[in-house]
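Q: I'm writing up a methods section and want to include an example of the input and output format. Could you take the sequence below and give the corresponding predicted structure tokens, formatted cleanly so I can copy it straight into the document?
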Amino acid sequence: MRKLLSLAFLAISTLSFAQMTEFEVRQMVNQADEQQLVFESSRMIQENYLYHAEIVVDKLLTIKPQSANYNYKKGFIVLESRKDFETAMRHLQIAITDTDKNYDAYSVREESAPTDAYYHLARCYHMDQQLDEAKKYFDMFIANSNKKSELVAKSELMLQQVAVAENLIANPKTARVKNIGPAVNGPGPDYSPVVSLDGTSLYFTSRREWEDQSSNEFKDPMLNDFPEDIYVSYKDFEDEWTSPEKLAFCDSRMNEATIAVSSDEKKIFVYQDATGGGDIYYSDFAGNKFDELAELDYTEVNTKYWETHCTETPDGQTMYFVSDRPEGYGGRDIYRIVKLPNGEWSKAQNMGPEINTPYDEDAPYIDVNNKTLYYASNGPKSMGGFDIFVTFRDEDNNWSEPLNLGYPINSTGDDLFYTTTIDGLKGYLTSFRKGGYGEKDIYEIQNDYMGNRPISSLRGAFVSVDDSELPEDMRVLLKCTNCQNEDAKEQDLRIKNQTFFAVLERCKDYVVEYYEGDKLVGKENIVTKCNAENEEINARHYFGDYDLAINVYDINTSVRIEGAKVDLIDADNDNLIASYVTNGDGTVTPTYLDGKSYGDEVRFNVVISKENYVKQTFIADTVLGKEGSIVLEYPLTPMEAGVDVGALVAINPIYFDLDKSNIRPDAAVELDKIVKIMNENPTMRIELASHTDCRASKSYNQRLSDRRAKSSAEYVRKRITNPSRIYGKGYGESRLVNDCGCEGNVVSDCTEEEHQANRRTEFTIVK
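A: Here is the clean output for your methods example:
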């Protein structure tokens, strides 16, 4: 759709340039004389076959390197075909040394360049931000050119743009512009970026070779460009863009270009020229890929005229699009349609002269707040070519006077296709700037003054507890229980890279449901804020299988125990769940956790027995979390004299009332632990020893501890098999565990806690 024909090349031939292959052009160049080369190069330029024309002109420059005419042709081709103003400038500087109003492009005797050379050199200086030089040569072109030339009006427009550039460069914005790098930007044109609201996906258009080279035969014969295709790049865990992937619906024979992506990334809008005029198409995301393209069936959008771009509000109720239909204000204009209560779309409404100018407006992007519209315009308020502008909608649905986003966001070249992340502080655009990787590159813009408020969003992720892949049938259903918009009441969110994202309405109640196929596997409730604060709600759903391993080892040697019996007991009803025997590694792997999910409470008892070891019961009580492998380590204590059984079952201190030896209820709870372990180990014999601190007389303490020991032992004896296996013995203060003696003239300065350490009951295996 480019219009590159310079008025310097008159249509003196009625014959269309016969398309030739590059090989045929190079063969012709090697055989033709200078007159034929001049004629063919001029005809190729006239018919916009600039790639082949450059091959011919390069040959002419080997014949006459300083020819103003040939250098003009070279500079014109380079500037028009790939916007390489630095290379074009060098040739046009030679061209202006000899200009002639009566330039004859087809004559071999023509040594001069047309006065158009001043205009194109001015454009180069303009794009290079050499603004004084740009003004100088625009003025020289106006003074020396044919007054009927359409380039005069363009020069006058560009002089206005130069003045805008001077002002904006002198008053730069606090924004940072960064080329996003070679992972995305290649040597060819990369443009029309559309960033997802969560900033993790970047859809863009590129003219690059297919890996299988199947698109090579469909190159643009005029510029030798590969067809346009749509790619997507994703942010990795280090916040870097990954190698782009071509979308499946791209056709090697066709041009497909990115326009917009819905807020949930489940619909992509595409420009395609299949009908010849250029229309808007779309593709829905289903089955983990985008479907084949279908023409947008909004009758007010696609017409016999040129529709290049569109953007849809996140709620799907309004669409803004671009068309060059004749009822506009000039060039391409921005129009709007809205969805009516009956579900139909309204008539197209021109956005009016405050936004649309006699020049071109293109690439609209409506922000997530539904109040901020970004677009590109190449009119008199631009710095040069297209610039990004912004306008804001007030409560009365009136749009503000558009503002140029300023320098350095905009440059003196074409800046187009601006889209932003949800907060409005990061955006992406297309531009040709110094230091780029190709004819057009994609740049990231960071600013601190265009933020959105208030915005609510949901950012979710799936986390595997066992390093498994996300099930293919996993779904996320977002339900709003009090939203008015039908489309917002239930949304099936797109999952990408094990994440999902959604824009939420303010002050609303939501339920996030997770499904594997039709099975509900989890859900959580969300309430969005009603105040003026931004919020990002994070959700996590853990998936995968949990594994249980139980390891049994000797408490003294740490050696794993083979052949130990491991019983899993239901903690609620004492029923046996399953029995196992440890293998050579002292391990069993019960299937108890099969079917369990993240957040489930797991509670059971583990009873472990082995000949010559104390049979013990361990309590397993946990909530399943981020780790899929649950390993329980249990030590067994050899059944041998001297072992403190109280330490095995975590006996708390046994208390008696002052000067009493009867068993209190709290003491009974602790003694029941001894009852249990002795019943589990019917050969175990225990001495129950009672000790006191040093306070009171030795004889009193001895009698008191003996009564308490015998009373405690009697309590146990009544509740175990073979009661003779336990006896009680009091030791008084004879076995203090610290230096807290206080007999005779000794006065103890020990604390109550230190005395308490001596008032203890011990349960020691004696056989």
